[in-house]
Give the backbone structure.
Amino acid sequence: MIKLDNVSLVFQGGSVALSNVTTNISEGEFVYLIGHSGSGKSSLLKLLYKEYSATKGDIEVVDMDVTSLPKWKIPLLRRKLGIVTQEPQLLEDRTTFENISFALEVLGFEEKEIDVKTSTLIDLVGLNESMYKFPSQLSGGEQTRACIARALASNPLVLLCDEPTGNLDPDLSIQIISLLEKINRAGTTVLMATHDSSIVNRRKKRVLQLKDGKLLSDVDQGRYV
Amino acid sequence: MKKLNYVFKNTFINMRRNPLLVIATMLAVLVSSFLVFTTLSARAIVENNTSRWQNGVHVVIFLDDRVTSTAHKQLQDTLESYPEVRMVEYFTKSEASDEFKILFKDQPELLQEVDFDILPTSLRINLNDPADYQLIIERMDGNPAVKEIRASGEAIERLLSLTNTLVLSATIFAGLIAFAAFILIINTLRLTAYAKKKEIKIMRTIGASSTYIRLPFIFEAVFESLIGTSFAVGLGWGFIQYSKTSFIAESIFDIAISDSYLINLTLILLLSTVIFGFFASFVGIRKALND
């Protein structure tokens, strides 16, 4: 599902974000990407959805050669991925329902389909009681769940989550992780970047650890040491 | 259809965000298009008028009455032998008097005062190419039968030159205003793009194509430009219709311009406006989409 072969990313000015990273993630896996701030977690995720372009190496995501992907094909790649960022990116002037249906509207779904699918997604992330609330009226956890629902709008094969629990307290973080595991059990591959050791150590999943842009370890049922 | 709804809805939402800038843009396009429309129409009117004059008499040679009528006839024969000359008409004193009476029929005092005997006989020459009038003047220079030579070509040339200068000045001015409109459109779109920065970012993340994100901006620029030009064309048509019945039409000018010319000009202006709007929107939104 995701293949990285000797991938490096060097920014203009010479700062090295990633150095010779090689790994494979299979379909249906749930993988944690761990490391301290600045270790290259976000950069690696951004390479996968072609926000950045690798300086060296080959990247393949959902059977698409990301390395040589032309600009006009990037939207096609992103429609196969769900992307959740640390800061919940919600439109302040729209309700939870509208924020989720917006994604379906952009993806070209029919109006009837949009209503049904939005309701299903809201039900999946447990936001039924907050569907007509605006982002400012939602808690941090609810905002993250709304973002996850929106990321699932295109039925993605892979869900890329960049520290979705970064601003949440432990209880809310557990709720989000449980939700992501539920999505993973339904068949979606999940790659989640985090530096929250308590989550990683408790869930016993595959862990990729980055340090200074290098892949330090790749362990099944790993721990964040 | 769904996507088209989205595009139209967002075009109007975008326009509502910066109403003053939108109005300023439309006004700038209006002024620029109005200048282009009226100056090109004016040039067509002048060309129509001058070509009408050019089909008439180009050179008038007033003859010296002290010279015999045989000499006058010889001069006429000489002129008719020139390849540049299409026709020579001999205009007698009595014909000159009749013409004078017609031209000044509204001024009876003048007609009473004038001694028609002083009106000279003349040869009225029609040239194949009106630009050759100088050649005829040179050849007739010093001829004892010739009292004075008048050429309409000089007046036509002066008028055309004046018209061309006016058209050039107005075109430069229209170009400057069009440039101002261009900058205004770019600024309006940039402000809108800035206000919608988060929305654009989300759309890109979801997988919306650049074209899909651009469309509301393109529609906005084209729509604003088209409204400005449509008003300008409407004003231009109104101005020409008014001119046909105003003092301008009562002067030497005949407001002679065909509807087909005006329709063509309107279509070309509207098409240019669409291209202008497209180009401005591409420049305006380029940076916002690359961020």
